[in-house]
Amino acid sequence: MSATTRPDSSLGRGTDRGAPPVGVLTAAVSAIRFELMAYFRTPDTVFFTFLFPVLMLGIFGTAFASMDEVGVRPDGTGGITMAAYYLPGMVASAILLSGLQNLAIDIAREKSEGWLRRLGSTPLSPVSYFFGKAGAILVTTAAQLVLLFAFAVLVFGVELPREPELWLRFAWIALLGIVTMTLLGIALSALPRSSRSATAVVLPIVLLLQFISGVYLMFSMLPDWLQSIAALFPLKWLAQGMRSVFLPDHLAVLESGEVWDLGLVALNLGIWLVVGLVASLLTFRWVRRS
């Protein structure tokens, strides 16, 4: 580390612009390893982001186990359990929590406690820093989803898709959702004024989005005006995309347009990805402005 290197306040200008790509990649891998160690050594973070969707699926699956199946056809076929219905919403929730919530709180805390100021005074590139954050989110989200699927299958007997095309659909929706939520988490980290207020600022936003986007409540149960508001935000589209993967096709009639509309899913997530990228570039600073 160079003691004479001046901190750079912007996201777009790193302190090692001339560093070779191999050096940046090595630093990024080290950053990912560090982020993963820090993540799993923080019990409250593990509980509220890693295990929370599994716990919520367990609660909903148990509480509504005695209810009739969802989407039963007139001939009595095609129904699924409430646990199976809630699974895609919990998948979307896991991506939201790992990306937007965890990252927004984490960066706000590091900024408030002076970690980012010290990092900005070192040769660490913003590219390496954010590769570390994004890589950790990708790894933890993948592990979280594997645990969620195993829990759904082993505890509630949920049948996962068998068609390869559905898993390919899941892959691009999940990857697009992870990138979008990661960029939005970076942008949202500029909102809290201190580490103490970070959780109070971010959690209500995350909870509200989950309630209006078809994660905790069936989207078809919401009034039309609330569905229209939810359609302005990315979680609704991420949850809808996941429902297209894990739910039978005839349940598309429960969506606002009575179709899965994957084109709109991709378009809206893509728009929010760009919004998150632009907002991150404009708002991120190594040092919080007074």
TrEMBL record:
Domain of life, per lineage: Bacteria
GO MF entry, a single one: ABC-type transporter activity
Residues spanning the membrane: 46-65, 85-108, 129-158, 170-191, 198-219, 262-284
Subcellular location: Cell membrane; Membrane
A single GO BP: response to antibiotic
GO annotations of cellular component type: ATP-binding cassette (ABC) transporter complex
Stated name of the protein: Transport permease protein
